[in-house]
Amino acid sequence: DMATMLAFVATDARVAPGPLDDLIACANRASFSRITVDGDTSTNDAFTLIATGASDMPAINSSEDPRFELLARTITGVAAELAQAIVRDGEGATKFVTITVQGGASADECLEVAFTIAGSPLVKTALFAGDPNWGRFCMAIGRARVTGLDPDKVSLWLDDLRVAAAGVMVPDYTDAAGAAVMSAPEFQVRIDLGRGTASETIWTTDLSYEYVRINAEYRT
Asked: Which pLDDT belongs to residue 139?
């Protein structure tokens, strides 16, 4: 579930194969598996983590080693920075958009909603236009494969601007305020499903005229 890419990260730490597998799985979940440009993937997508063992530190032989968590945070941070760079450099991209879905019953359903929003052509063109058409976000939320989702519990923010609460637009929201947020090159769309404590974040782009031109004019 990655965007088209080859990613290589190296550490001079000494790490045994078992915890090294755990490290790359942990880093991938929070980085390359949290991005989408157009939803398509490639046959050569890969993320490779190399532990050279060049340092003099004692080897990390287990994920229970106290040093494992620090190394995992560091490698995940590097991987997330690289993953976000892919989104920022997406074909024809003019917007870098963070989508956070919270209040879910599970991480999986938060991701399902987030990726459904990020993959919607109607949402992506609204992102490009800076059009705060919050009905398009609600459409995508409703289309997500989440059993028992109650639209009357859903809330929506653009950055810190609350757009909707309990399934309806808040009285003090204005389209002008929403457009001001969405005209920026980077902003956050935050959704609260109102059904739990799980939360997940992904990163995506808009869908621009330039994206269509690039992909219409070349062939592999």
From this structure: 95
Exposure b/e, 30-50, CB count within 10 A at least 16 = b: bbbbbbbbbeeeeeeeebebe
- Delineate the domains of the chain, giving CATH numbers in brackets: 6-88 (3.30.2330.10), 96-215 (3.10.20.340)
pTM: 0.92
pLDDT at res. 4 = 66
155-181: pLDDT as tens digits: 999 999 999 999 899 999 999 999 999
* Token pair belonging to 112: 């399902």
Catalytic site residues?
4
Torsion of CA 116, 120, 124, 125, to 10 degrees: -160
Say if residues 131 and 178 touch (Cβ distance below 8 Å).
no
Asked if residue 141 lies in contact with residue 149, where contact means CB atoms within 8 angstroms, the answer is: yes
Q: Is the pLDDT of residue 3 over 80?
A: no
What is the 8-class DSSP label of residue 151? Answer: G
